[in-house]
Amino acid sequence: MAIVYQRSKGLTDVETHYCPGCTHGIIHRLVAETLEELDILGKTIGVAPVGCSVFAYDYFNCDMQEAAHGRAPAVATGIKRVLPDKVVFTYQGDGDLAAIGTGEITHAAMRGENITTIFVNNAIYGMTGGQMAPTTLVGQRATTAPLGREKSHAGSPIRIAELLATLDGAAYIERVTVTSPANVMRAKRAIRKAFELQLEGRGFTMIEVLSTCPTNWGLTPVKALEWLNENMIPVFPLGVYKDITKEEA
Amino acid sequence: MAKELWKGNEAIAEAAIRAGCRCYFGYPITPQSEIPEYMSLHMPKAGGVFLQSESEIAAINMVYGASGAGARVMTSSSSPGVSLKQEGISYMCGAELPGVIVNVMRGGPGLGTIQPAQGDYFQATRGGGNGDYRLIVFAPANIQEVVDLMQEAFELADQYRMPVMMLLDGMIGQMMEPIEWKKPPVSPDDLPAKPWATTGTKEGRAPNIINSLFIDPEACNVHNQRLEEKYRRVIENEQRYETNDTDGAEVIFVAYGTPARLARAAAGLLEKEGIKAGVFRPVTVWPYPYEALHEVAIQDSVKVVVTVEMSTGQMVDDVRIGVNGVKPVSFIGQAGGVIPTPREVANAALKALGR
Amino acid sequence: MAYHEIIVAGFGGQGVMSIGTTMAETAMAQGLNVSWLPSYGPEMRGGTANCNVVIADTEIISPIVLEPSELIAMNQPSLDKFEPAVKPGGLILVNESIVERKVQRDDVRAIYVPSLEIASELGNMRVANMAMLGAYIEATKYLTFETVVDMLRNIFTGKKAHLVELNEVALQRGADCVRR
Ligand SMILES: Cc1ncc(C[n+]2csc(CCOP(=O)(O)OP(=O)(O)O)c2C)c(N)n1
Ligand code: SF4
Asked: Which of B123, B199, B233, C1 has minimal CB crowding within 10 Å?
């Protein structure tokens, strides 16, 4: 993959702890570049989750708060209500956002909270060692689904973008991925659009990014990208699920 | 029976299944994730229910429901997750529901660290939820003891109709030791009947209600007094502790869980220096064995009582209550996942002795 | 009285944990008391991992090893970190294949094992840790090769039975490094 790496001013020089080939790193860079390009690093407050990106507070070069597991949207709400002129974002994994934090994310979206959520969906709990997530695919193995996720027992993967798109408070919701240079460009545009809408005060924005976890999927980085393309995208189709600017037009 | 090498977390899970537990709800968190992982494979094999919940709040409320429906049920977590369970634990106590809650403690407060600690002592023994309630809290110090106590934990929970907590630290969860399965496995079919459970009236009996709401203050007071009377019976009958070389000792270390092992190592160091030291180890930290500790401390030989914890000092309050001023009580501890060394512990005793 | 306090340390994925569990299983099979305590958490991702093993014919007081009587250092950071802690008169086994320096202390016994070379000569990189274990057993002489091999026979059955011999040879090649 031909992504020439150049560190954005939006990132600190702290070396990240992500596993080799994990796409958390690319997603960090896209967010950081966007903040830099929009020249809002100085007025942005980020909220880190609990999950592999728990140390995001050390990586983003802006003010950061660390939230309890799943509570980032509530913490972000608190920040935004006190500082409505600032830019506030959360960066959350699928265990954090789609399991323990479904209440908080749903109600932040319902209220049309003027924040941006970067939702990193890797279909597994990375940090704690590969347990089943609500986004785990049917049949996919996890340490708490040793024989693969069974629909009759654990249901089917939750599609957060589609779910939140039903809420009136949601201004912009798109699902993207970062498995190819073209996809990375698209993801970058989506993230930029979300932050722009926040700057315009349009309401809740969320970009769901399909991401890899080579370590807990037990795949090489390259195979992990292939696995994502072949297995995750059919279940989690890419695309725009809500765009308030289109509705108005 | 032959000894088998077991990891603490997996042994807890297996011991629960052998104790007739056929229902587990939980959410992953280090350093206890091996419990749900083990359960996910072995609970279905035993014909039981394993379900990964969406949060610890959901897990404890699933426990509430399953227990109310008459199941022998458990959940497990580590410190931040156990904090989330406090509401449900309070409701279980209010509704008088049995169940076992395992807390494999890590360092706090907040997200803290994933390394072993004992900072949840107050939460476990004083109650982290609302209202006047108590839990029976077992604090085993090695994997054999964990396994031995598991069946008892379920039995006491049923007997008194209250939750029982197994309070461990990350070290016990993560380490491996040889164990023996001393007791024969319990079949869920042989468990005592629970006529209060909501299993359907079958149109034969009056409806059962599982509830913690007593809106009339008089009624709520009566309910509380009745719970209190039950807790008194627990205090009278269920205190457990162990002593090592406390007879005629100059120094008494008091510690539970992993620090009790460190205290014994420290006692060994002191012995080499000509000082006799023993260890008093509460096995139940609620009810706390106050009188037994008092008896040990009041001996003429005892000069100092030194509490050892992986916290900044929580159980030491109970030690002071037990010793009740008859001897000086001091404290040595480290928090946040740092474990005091036997040398530090021995030095704390020397300092307390004024040497 | 035997009381062995061992630290096995290296990169995650080098088989550090399994060297420790094999030692513990072997000791248990020989009727000794054991405890095995791993480091855990996300630091193990590509970082360093270690386990503490205590083996004794008396009761094991604490499972935590602060001053090992024996250290198995599978990589350089592990040697750097734990060499100073080893008890005087103790033993340090060094994975010579990737550790670039020698043991600096002169009050301990040092043994060097080219575990990767041994494994590649045997055509299976997974047996590198068996070579380390073989050296340990030979140098300390309280665990027996027979017990380990018996255990291997229980683990590798059916189609995998041929792995018993391979592992046995790896153990012996490791042991040779002590004798040389
Ligand atoms: C209350 C609470 N429960 C559980 C945990 C343990 N925990 C830490 S991260 C995590 C899951 C992370 O998975 P995900 O959000 O998918 O992010 P990833 O690691 O995959 O990036 C869990 C369950 C915790 N820290 N707090
Ligand atoms: S465990 Fe998975 S999600 Fe976490 S850093 Fe490693 S690859 Fe990424």
From this structure: C1
Backbone angle region of B332, left / alpha / beta, with phi > 0 → left and psi within -120 to 50 → alpha: beta
Q: Name every residue in A having a CB less than 8 A away from some CB of B.
A: 50, 54, 66, 68-70, 95, 99-100, 102, 125, 127-129, 131-132, 134, 143-147, 153-154
Cα–Cα nearest to B244, from B275, B273, B276: B276
In short, whether B34's Cβ falls inside 6 Å of ligand 1 is no
User: What is the C-alpha separation between B161 and B275, in angstroms, rounded?
Assistant: 46
Q: Is the peptide bond before B287 cis (omega within 30 degrees of 0)?
A: yes
The verdict on a CB contact (< 8 Å) between B177 and C63 is yes
- pLDDT value at residue A234: 98
Distance CA C111, CA C113 (A): 7
Contact between A68 and B54 using a beta-carbon 8 Å cutoff: no
C-alpha distance from A131 to closest chain B C-alpha (Å): 7
User: Cα distance from C85 to chain B (closest Cα, Å)?
Assistant: 14
Residue A3 pLDDT > 90, yes or no? no
pLDDT category of residue A1 using cuts at 50, 70 and 90 = low
B251 φ/ψ angles, rounded to the nearest 5 degrees: -115, 130
- Total domain count, chain C: 1
Q: pLDDT for A163-216, tens place per residue? A: 999 999 999 999 999 999 999 999 999 999 999 999 999 999 999 999 999 999
| CATH classification at residue C37 | 3.40.920.10
CA gyration radius for chain A?
17
Instruction: Establish how many alpha carbons lie within 13 A of residue A1's alpha carbon, considering only the half-sphere containing its beta carbon.
Output: 18
Nearest Cα residue in chain A from B42: A146
**Closest by CA position to B9, among listed C79, A97, C78, A143:** A143
Nearest-angstrom CA–CA distance, A114 and A124: 28
CA dist A130 and A140 (Å) reads: 11
Instruction: Give the phi and the psi of residue B163 in degrees, each rounded to 5.
Output: -70, 145
Least Cα distance to C127 among C176, C173, C81, C60 occurs for C173
Which among A245, A99, A242, A94 has a CA at the least distance from the CA of A162?
A: A242
The closest ligand to the CA of A221 turns out to be 2
CA angle C122, C124, C125 (to 5 degrees): 110
Pairing between β-strand A239-243 and β-strand A170-177 as defined by DSSP bridges = antiparallel
> How far apart are the C-alpha atoms of A160 and A116, rounded to whole Å?
15
The two structure tokens encoding residue A106: 């749903």
Domains assigned to chain A: 24-248 (3.40.50.970)
Q: Which tens digits make up the pLDDT trace of B300-323?
A: 999 999 999 999 999 999 999 999
Question: Is A24 near ligand 2, meaning CB less than 6 Å away?
Answer: yes
Pocket test for ligand 2, best of A23, A140, A216 (most atoms within 8 A of CB): A216
- Residue A214 Cβ inside 6 Å of ligand 1? The answer reads no
Question: Per residue in B167-181, is it b (16+ CB within 10 Å) or e — as a string?
Answer: bbbbbbbbbbbbbeb
Residues C51 and C14: their CA atoms lie apart, in Å, by: 12
- Beta strand B73-77 with B23-26 is parallel
C-alpha dist (Å) from residue C137 to A214, A231, B236, C22, C92:
36, 48, 52, 11, 13
Using 50, 70 and 90 to split pLDDT, how confident is the model at A247?
confident
- Burial call B303-327: b when 16+ CB within 10 Å, e when fewer: bbbbbbbbbeebbbbbbeebbeeeb
| Shortest Cα distance, chain A CAs vs residue B314, angstroms | 24
* Amino acid type, C47: G
* Residue C26: domain span: 3-179
* Residue ranges in chain B whose pLDDT is less than 70: 1
The length of chain B in residues reads 355
**Which domains are delineated in chain B?**
4-237 (3.40.50.970), 242-352 (3.40.50.920)
